[in-house]
TrEMBL record:
Its EC number is 2.1.2.2. CDD domains: FMT_core_GART. NCBIfam families: PurN (TIGR00639). The gene is purN. SUPFAM superfamilies: Formyltransferase. The lineage of its organism: Bacteria, Pseudomonadati, Pseudomonadota, Alphaproteobacteria, Sphingomonadales. The keyword Metal-binding does not apply. It catalyses: N(1)-(5-phospho-beta-D-ribosyl)glycinamide + (6R)-10-formyltetrahydrofolate = N(2)-formyl-N(1)-(5-phospho-beta-D-ribosyl)glycinamide + (6S)-5,6,7,8-tetrahydrofolate + H(+). This is Phosphoribosylglycinamide formyltransferase. Belongs to the GART family. It comes from Sphingomonas alba. The active site is at residue 104. Catalyzes the transfer of a formyl group from 10-formyltetrahydrofolate to 5-phospho-ribosyl-glycinamide (GAR), producing 5-phospho-ribosyl-N-formylglycinamide (FGAR) and tetrahydrofolate.
Length: 183
């Protein structure tokens, strides 16, 4: 039987949000870190923190089928995407509706998709931020769970803004997940 408090994190890269979710876990347990990239640096971080990992490189459907077997084996009830750089299939979303969260580095619904910080700067925004949202079939369009505003400062480039927003993400995501699993 799956348990909403048993969380799997999906990553594709360094996983700094994954590290924050593991280290600041309150009211939930991260029991698996999974990746579609076998050399994702975040996998080493997870192992160093004592969290079991699953990594497999395959076409989307094949990866998702193997992932779901691992999720079932670990009795996962909630999935947290953390820099997972792949679109989840509609079939997967349908089976996990309402149980997948993601963090996005803008104030959704503004600036969905990739290259977010450059687009925020190009739009002349004075305030940016990050959003924890439910994951639906349409990219970055699920219900908003939590948001934090972050100022855009004069002289910001994408890298400086990204670093400021990432700091806010590392606070927002664990807090939002802790409240989500208790809802
Ligand atoms: N079905 C959904 N899947 C995902 C969502 C979502 O809202 N619905 N959120 C994304 C968010 N994201 C990163 O966090 C993300 C955004 C865009 C892309 C993307 O365009 N990927 C391309 C190429 C990826 C690759 O190089 O393999 C693609 O999948 O065609 C990825 C991630 C996470 N998934
Ligand atoms: N659209 C998704 C997206 O842009 N996600 C962003 O990728 C970074 C991953 O960092 P991390 O791997 O260190 O957590 C984070 O800033 C996250 O918001």
């Amino acid at each position: 039987m799956s348990d909403p408090k048993r969380v799997a994190i999906l990553i594709s890269g360094r996983g700094s949000n994954m590290k924050a979710l593991i280290e600041q876990a309150r009211g939930y347990e991260v029991v698996l870190v999974a990746s579609n990239k076998v050399h994702a640096p975040g996998l080493d971080t997870a192992r160093a923190l004592g969290v079991p990992t699953f990594a497999f490189e395959a076409k989307r459907d094949e990866f998702e089928a193997a992932l779901e077997r691992s999720l079932a084996d670990h009795k996962i009830g909630t999935i947290a995407l953390a820099g997972y750089m792949r679109i989840l299939s509609a079939a997967f979303i349908g089976r996990w509706r309402g149980r997948i969260l993601n963090i996005h580095p803008s104030l959704l619904p503004r600036h969905k998709g990739l290259d977010t910080h450059n687009r925020v700067l190009a739009a002349g925004e004075t305030v940016s931020g990050c959003t924890v949202h439910l994951v639906s079939e349409e990219l970055d369009s699920g219900d908003v769970i939590a948001q934090t505003e972050v100022p855009v400062e004069s002289g910001d480039d994408a890298s400086r803004l990204a670093a400021r927003v990432l700091e806010a993400e590392h606070y927002l995501y664990p807090k939002a997940l802790s409240e989500f699993v208790r809802r």
